[in-house]
Amino acid sequence: MKKIIAIIAGGDSSEHDVSLRSAEGILSFLDKERYDVYIVEIKGQTWEAHLEDGSRAVVDRNDFSFVDGERCVHPDFAYITIHGTPGENGILQGYLDLIGLPYSTSDVLVEAMTFNKFTLNQYLKGFGVSVSESLIVRKGFESLVTDTEIVEKIGLPCFVKPNAGGSSFGVTKVKKAEDIHSAIQKAMNESDEVMVEAFMQGTEITCGCYKTSTKDVVLPVTEVVTGNEFFDYDAKYNGQVQEITPARLSKETTERVQLITSTIYDILGCSGIIRIDYIITKQRTSDGKETERINMLEINTTPGMTATSFIPQQVRAAGLEMKDVLTDIIEDKLAR
Question: Full-prediction pTM beyond 0.85?
Answer without folding.
Answer: yes
